[in-house]
Amino acid sequence: MLTTADFLQYTQWSGIATLVFAALAVLSFIFKWGIRFRLVGTTGFMLVVTAGLFALSLVPLSRTVIPGAVRYSLVYDNGSTQAVIAITPQITTSELDATLRQAASNLYSYGRLGTKADSQLTIRARTLTHPEPGLTVPVYLGQVKRSLVSREDSNITVEVYPEKFAQLPKPTA
To answer: How far from 126 is each of 4, 21, 45, 134, CA to CA, in Å?
Structure first.
């Protein structure tokens, strides 16, 4: 995965290329080259690319990795206080706990619409079961609640529903 240092290096190279195109654009106007307006457009485009790379060099792009967590898919997010992740039916309770903690960290954003200081983001974990052909039933295995205000929330509450694990299909040997 690219780091902020990588993006800073790309920003430097892009800045140098931008200066080269700007110099060519100035020369093209001095010598009245036919491609002078294209060089102005290229210089403008390179300015935008350089600014974008610089912005990416300021913001970390890393995701939290919690040992024991399994892959999940975000299936619902209202952009405010509720989200649902999909997980595999073969998950264990310890994997679910780690996965919920990882999702709580990864789905946190300053841009969520929490209106009160006590607003919480609730992330529910669900899987799909097929008790009979043609019938699909969602089973909610747990949830996590975290603050919408603080990135480093020490009061994350994880709830795992052990009674729901009994509804999951048993693995075949």
So the answer is: 34, 53, 44, 19
Q: 3-class SS at 124?
A: strand
Pull the structure tokens for residue 33: 């080259």
pLDDT digit string (tens) for 21-78?
999 999 999 999 999 999 999 999 999 999 999 998 887 666 778 999 999 999 999 9
Number of residues assigned to the chain: 173
Alpha-carbon gap, residue 101 to 61, rounded angstroms: 18
For residue 164, the Cα-to-chain-centroid distance in whole angstroms is 28
Angle at 133 between CA 131 and CA 138, to 5 degrees: 45
Q: Which residues contact 164 (CB under 8 A, 6 or more apart)?
A: 139, 140, 141, 142
- Residues 20, 22, 26, 28, CA torsion sign: positive
**CA 106/CA 35 separation, integer angstroms:** 47
Structure-token pair, residue 88: 């595999």
Nearest to 148 by CA among 130, 128, 122, 167: 122
Task: Read off the tokens for 55.
Answer: 């912005």
Say what the pLDDT of residue 102 is: 94
- What is the phi/psi pair of residue 6, to 5°? -60, -45
Number of H helices, E strands in the chain: 4, 5
